[in-house]
Amino acid sequence: MNKLTPIITLATLAVLLTSAPAFAANYCNSVWTGKVERLRIYNQGANQKVFAYIAPGNNDSYVGYSENPNMINALFQNRNNQSGDEIQGYTGSDCKIQWLDY
Predict the structure, then answer these.
(1) Torsion-angle region of residue 29: left (phi > 0), alpha (psi -120 to 50) or beta?
(2) How far is it, in rounded angstroms, from Cα 97 to Cα 45?
(3) How many angstroms separate the CA atoms of 34 and 18, rounded?
(4) DSSP the chain
(5) Is 85 within 8 Å of 75 (Cβ atoms)?
(6) Domains of the chain and CATH, by start
């Protein structure tokens, strides 16, 4: 095993996780409505982000990310809600979720 393999693997993973929004259908810079279907958690030292996807939960349904604990809590509550209630939000041009209406 090459000594650089673990470093290259970690760098590749970091690029994939942080650039995922660039490949999405892109709800960035827009208002969106839907049921949170999937949350991707990225916890790398000081960089703690949650990436949100509305139903059906595939990469094309990416709506943005948040680092705010209150917003992350609301995203998890909506995902775990069995009644199917939708959440509405606005994601800025940087793909960061700016507000939620739940």
Answers:
(1) left
(2) 21
(3) 23
(4) --TTHHHHHHHHHHHHHHHGGGGS---TTEEEEE-EEEEEEEEETTEEEEEEEETT-SGGGEEEEE--HHHHHHHHHHHH-TT---EEEEE-TTSBEEEEE-
(5) no
(6) 5-101 (2.40.50)
Distance of CA 21 to the CA centre of its chain: 8
Provide the Cα torsion 58, 64, 70, 72; round to 10°.
Answer: 30
Give the pLDDT of residue 32: 96
| Full pLDDT tens readout for the chain, 102 residues | 566 566 555 555 454 445 444 444 579 999 999 999 999 999 877 778 999 999 998 999 999 999 999 999 999 999 998 877 899 999 999 999 999 998
Contact (CB, 8 A) for 99 and 89? yes
Q: Report residue 9 as tokens.
A: 């693997």
**Which residues partner with 31 through β-bridges?**
90
End-to-end CA distance of the chain: 50
